[in-house]
Each structure stands twice: as C-alpha cells, then as structure tokens.
Amino acid sequence: MNPPVATASQPLALREFHAFEAHGARFLYMVPSAGIFRMDGPSVAILDALQLGPQGAESLIEELSSDYPLEQIVETIEELTEIRAIGDVNAPKQQVPNDLPPEGFPLTTMVLNVTNKCNLACTYCYEYGEDKIVDTKYGDAPKFMSEQTAEESVEFLLAESRGQEVAHLTFFGGETLLNFPVLQQTVAYARRRAAEEGKRIEFSLTTNATLLRPEIIEWLADNQIGVTISIDGPKEVQDGLRVFHNGKGTYDVVQPKIKELLRVHRTRPIGARVTLTQKNMDVLEIFRHLTEDMGFWEVGLAPVTTQDQRDYAITPEGKDSMLSQFEVLAQEWLQCALRDEHHGFSNVKDTLEEIHKGVSKAYGCGAGLGLMGVATDGDVALCHRFAGSPEHKIGSVTEGIDRDVQNKFLEDHHIASKTDCHTCWARPICSGGCYHEAHVQYGESSHANLHYCTWVRSWTHTCLEIYGALAEKNPKFLERFDA
C-alpha cells in the first residue's frame, strides 16, 4: 500500500496540542479545537517518533512496520493528520481566527446591581477598596436601584434574550439584601412579564449573609432563588478581612443565619464563594469548614483581584501553595466522581464541564456579550464588576446597547488581539482571563492576565488528567455535563 497522498510529498511534523496521561492511557488535548483524543499504540508510536524531529510518511512506516500492520500505520497517519495533531512540516501555523460573534447574539445573563452600598468594609473589596474603579461614595449614581429601573432592566433582558426560552437574572451589590423590597418587586414583575412573553426567568443572588432574616430566607426558598454566600472560611479567617465598618468581625453574625438558610432553603443548592488572599491561604481548612461544618453544597475559591503591592496580594509562593491544595481537592473530587458521589469543589467541576463540552473561547468570559451588568442608574456595563464605570459602559436599559461600542469591545478583547496568548496551549479554556483582573493589574481590560499564565496551565493540566481518568474509569459520570 502506498503512503497517504496528503503526507507523501513533505516530511510530517507535530502540530499544536497538549499531551497528558490518565490511568495509563495517553490523550491529546487539541489546540485550538479543544477536542480530546485517546491515543492507541500506533498513534503513540507515531507521535513519539516525530517528537525527535520531522519525518516523511515512508520513513515512519518503515520504522514502525515491525510493530504494527502497514494498513494500521497508514490509517493512523491519516487520522492524526485529519485532527491536525501532525501535518506538513512547511505548513504555516494555524492562525487564531478573528471570528466575531454574529449580530443579534442573545443576552443570557443579566446581573442587576441593585445597590452600590455595603454594610461591610472588607479590606480587599474590588468595589470599595484600594483598587476600586468606580467612586460609589461620592459618585452621581443613586445608592439604590429604583423599582422603575429594575422593571426597565427586566424589559431589557426580555428583549435582548431574543429567542432564548430561559434567561437568568442575578441580583448583586454592594450588599444585595440592603435593597430587599426591590428584589421582591422585581421577581414578581419579571415572572409575570416572562410568562406573557412565553419565557422563563431564573433568579439568583449573592449576599454576605449579614442581613438574612427568617422572612427573607422563606422568600428565597419559596421563589427558588439561587443563593451564593460570600464567606472566607472559619472564624479566624472570616474575621480577619470581612468586617463591619467599625472593624468588628462578621463570623458570629453570619454563622447562625447561614445555618438557618441551609436548613430552610432546599429548592436550590446554596454555594459559598471564597476570596483567597495572602492572609488566608489554608485552602483545605477553609473548604473543610465550609462543607463539613457549615454544610454548603458547593464551594468555589478565587484568588483576590488586586495589584501586587497590596499586603494581601498573593505572592508567587502563595500561588504555588494554592495550586498544590487545589490539586489535593481535585483528587478528592475525582475519587468521589469515580464512586458517583458528590464533592463540593466547584472549581474542578466548572473546568471539567468546559473540557467536556469542547469549549474553545474567543473571549475570557461572556462579559459584554451573553453577560452584562446593570448599574443602579440603569447604565449597562460589560459585567457587574464594571457597573457604573463610564469607561466600560456599553448602553442603558432604556436606550439599548450601543452596537458600535459593543463591537469595538469585542474586537479589542478577542483572543486574536492577544498575541501573548497565541502560543499557549491552554488558550481554549483561558483566552486571556478576566477583564476586570486585567484592568486592575495592567490598567486595560483587553490585556492578557500574564501573571497567572503558569498557574492556569498547571490547573488546566490537572483537570485534563481528571477528565481522562473519568473517561477511562467512569465515562457515564461525564454525561451529566451534557445538559
């Protein structure tokens, strides 16, 4: 049999992928397609041979013919060429396409900043701390969103969600529950208007839990509101940075309120969101306390967004410690998944879902596209973290989206514009990272978050190994990510 026509004329070379192993099997994570392929013996042999340098197809066939049938080698070369794991040594590197989203891309999630006031004075807060980008204290925006603006926001969401049957509305702050009456009115209004439009709106909110009362908890449960609690861990951790304006710690206030919320509210899972800083780096203790002692269903942990000179900014050594502890929790998550059991570490679950769905991002997130944030005055921003910032305004709930501003944002923030990312194998998952993080760190939201590149690659590799292990040992578990 003659070698494949496509590979006979020029030597073959490795193309862009990331190899990983799990449970004795070898896999390829393809870049930029984000496909995952399990390698068999011939494919491993071919890639190992090309690891030493380009070779012609004839040479590969001759080298491997004593181990594998000729037809199998030829077929494997064709398959590896088709998925672009190998290719003509002289072929140009595949360019990152500048494929902007189609016009009329629907809004799927709207974050409503119903207040820009907070009853806490958390040291690291991106809204009120040293790195804030909006003057919420002396600025012109109202401190609380009005019922009228909230209803106009609902109409905006219904219109911009277009043909989507389900839209998502998340209430945010400041401390969200400071404007509880508007929450109640908005949910009732949105439910009625969505039904009239033949749609459904799902609701969620984030709160620091200090204002939870029995009647609020009952309302949250009755209305099936998803709740995320901002909490940093055990008492000594929580009281170190999450304090009232008088400096008093918050743990003793929120602990019984959270316990009551978890007891009563059973219609939606309740999650915890932890901000990690250099001052609270015991990831394992924090996770164990929040899941085992407090009873949270899921816990997500995120490093603080701040500039390097802050005393709570995570050092390079701190990032290494954070990663090693994340990996411990990831392995625990895997062992639970192999037994079809739940584990509450949402960081690994979220990344695995993206891997399973073959997500290859053109943008770091959906901000300014499928996700938008609304400030208290109705101005629409890229996301809730930019709400109220004139620099990041892309419209208003009454006048709609300024398409020219939106398109300029989409062009500037596309992965094709981030040349630092073009050689990174993890770019399908990361795509440069959070825009707000970039703005705080580099002064521009379109900048790639280069300070977390090594961390992101290491964490993505860990999650790929877990995915491969599940694919080998319990593939049915992965079906839950199909929804």
In short:
The chain is an alpha/beta fold and 483 residues long. The protein has 16 helices and 15 strands.
Describe the protein in words.
- The chain is an alpha/beta fold.
- The longest helix is centred in the last third of the chain and has 23 residues.
For the structure shown, list the relevant keywords.
483 residues; alpha/beta; Outer Surface Protein A, domain 3; TIM Barrel; ten-stranded mixed beta sheet; three-stranded antiparallel beta sheet; 16 helices; 15 strands; globular; disordered N terminus
Sheet of most strands? 10 strands, mixed
Structural class by sheet pairing and helices: alpha/beta
What is the name of the CATH architecture of the domain at 109-351?
Alpha-Beta Barrel
CATH fold-level topology of the domain at 109-351: TIM Barrel
Portion in helices: 25-40%
Question: What fraction of the residues are assigned to beta strands by DSSP?
Answer: 15-25%
